Structures are given as C-alpha cells and as structure tokens.
Amino acid sequence: MPDTEAKLDAVLAKMDELLAAKDEQESKLNAILMKLESLEKSQKKTAQDVDELKDSYKLLDHGVTEVKSALAEKANRKEIDALNKKIEDLENRSKRNNVVIWGLKEGAEKDCSSVEEFLEEELFSKHMGLDNIEVMRAHRTKINQAAASATAPQSRPIHVYLLRYPDKGRILKAAANTLKDNPFCDSQIFISDDVSKSVRSERAKLRKDHLKQLKEREGVQFAFIPWSVPAQILYKEIDSEGLKSFKIRHK
C-alpha cells in the first residue's frame, strides 16, 4: 500500500505540474490573442486613417485643379481683354477722321450728284460757314431704332470720312455753335465724332451718373464731356489752374 500511495502522489504531483504548465500556456496564449486583437484594431484604424488621408488628398487635388483652372481662365480673360482693347483702339484710330451726322432726313441729298458733294457744299460750306472741307466718303448706316436720334428716329445716321483730321475739330466746334435751333433741310441735326460702341456707352454712363454731380460739386466752375478717347469728363475748379479729368475706373 505504501508504494501505491507514493505512486499516486507522484501522479498527482505530475498532474499539478501539467495543469500549472497548461495555465501558463493559456495565459501566454491569451496574451498573444489580446495582442493580435489589438494589432487587428490598430490595423483597421490605420486602414481607416489611410482612407481618410486618401480622401483628403483627393479633395486637395480637386482644389488644386480648380485653382489652376481659375488661374488659366483669369489669364485667358486678361488675354482676351487685352486683345479686345487693341481691337477697340484700332477701331477708334481707323475712325480718327470721321464724324457722324444724326437726324438728317432720308433723301435730303437727292438733288446733288453725291452725298459727299451735298455735305461739302450745302451743309459744311453754306449752312455752317466752313470752307475747304473735303469729304472722302459718306454713307448712311443702319441703326437700332432704340438708339436712333430722338429728333428723327426714322433717319439713318451718315458716317463721314474726312480727308484731313483738323477738319473734324472745326466741324464739331462749328456744330456746337451753329446747329442748335437752326434746322438744316427741315431737320434738326446733330454732329458727333465717330467712336466705338464701348466709348459711346462710357460717355452715356458719365453723362447719366457723374456729370451733373460734378457740375454741382462745390468749387467746380464748369464740367463737360469732350470729343475724345477714352471717355472722360473734364472740369475746372475755381481755385486751380488748368483742367482736371474724371474717368470711370474699371476693375
């Protein structure tokens, strides 16, 4: 019996040792599983962070693309604006010797051999007292009735190309002095310089929005819109010498 008990004790001791080893292994395994679980969570978090970073880069890339597109569009607008200004400048230069006659009734020139002869002899010489005005070309042009002369809305304006540039100034000055309340061929006519649509629009805006206010400003002696390019208001202050200029500022 003693031998049997000794053997049984040895077996129990061995089992305790194995159980202790098993518990230790399970503890280590649980630690490993916890680390794996933590690592898995960390990987998921890292993957989520990577996805968010990718989305951020996409947004940033889209923003950069939009900025580049806006800059390119702005550059193109600047190029287009610069080109339009050059075209407008060429247009105004080509009209440097031109005047436009508004309100002259249709057919008034029918008794002369040409419109040019009619203007030189009947209008400029006899009616306005201007000699030696030579007209190279003259013709009527179509116009939107909304923009036609209020005095003769059905009459097409006559565009006149003069041989000499100084004659343009003579005609405009004489027109201001002789044509008001002085009908020509039963028409109350008006003569202006020939400029681009943009300049005409700016002059109209100056006349509507600024000329009256400038005339009424304290210390301003007089103000007027000259026949010049670009469109501007010239004014004289009482206590200053010379004329000052006011122009519309463009952004």
Automatic annotation (TrEMBL):
Keywords: Coiled coil. It comes from the Eukaryota. Residues 8-100 form a coiled coil. InterPro entries: Transposase_22. PANTHER family: L1 TRANSPOSABLE ELEMENT-RELATED (PTHR11505). This is Uncharacterized protein.
